[in-house]
Amino acid sequence: MSETFAATIAAVIPVIWLVASLEAHQLMKPYLAYSQRFEQAAQEGERMLSEAGEQPASERIFAVQTEMNNRLAEIIEDQRTVDPPILFTFWVTFGGILLSAEWMALQWLAESDPGPDPGLAIFLLASTVGGFSALAFVPVAVTMVQATKHRKRGHKRHTALQEATMRLHVRAVDRERDEEPNQN
């Protein structure tokens, strides 16, 4: 391994680290926004359903259903998230490898007569290429996988909400029918 190679690696790894930190931050921003929007929509749905309460008007139940379905469909359609534990595990793994590579390159440069170390050179090269590859492919892959996963989960929740509001509608219609004066 040459001094130029080790110095280049020692200079490039912090750049990879910095860009990876920015990417991790960008991957987490949509997760936070999605979580907040979904929670707000759920709170709004609860409020709307409680306002509908015991009202016999089935139109109100349908209005609540339509409004909540539209809101949830919009949120589900817009979101792309990555689960924090996955991102944390990935970040710790690659961060640890890059930190180790940086330390080893600087340590090799600090020695008075380091001598050739092909094993270290291969490790430094693999770490650097791995870091570049992660920066190029992980954000795209994570976005695609998470979008698919959350879309499926969102559709399941959306269906559950539709079923719940339909049950409320049926109860309201039954209640109206029971309250009608007997026509005998």
List the helices and strands and how they pair.
Layout: H1 3-52, H2 58-78, H3 84-110, H4 118-179
Helix pairs in contact: 1-2, 1-3, 1-4, 2-4, 3-4
DSSP, total strands: 0
How many helical stretches? 4
- Give a quick account of the main beta sheet: strands, pairing sense, barrel closure: none
The dominant shape is rod-shaped
**Strand portion:** under 5%
Average residue-wise pLDDT: 79
* Unreliable residue runs: none
Radius of gyration (Å):
28 Å
Spatial separation of the terminal alpha carbons: 101 Å
Helix amount, in percent? over 70%
Write out key terms for the chains shown:
single chain, 184 residues, mainly alpha, 0% strand
Could you characterize the architecture of this molecule?
- The structure is a single chain.
- With 184 residues, the chain is an all-alpha fold.
- The protein is 87% helix and 0% strand.
- The chain contains four helices and no strands.
- The longest helix has 62 residues, at 118-179.
In short:
This protein has 184 residues and is mostly helical. It is built from four helices and no strands.
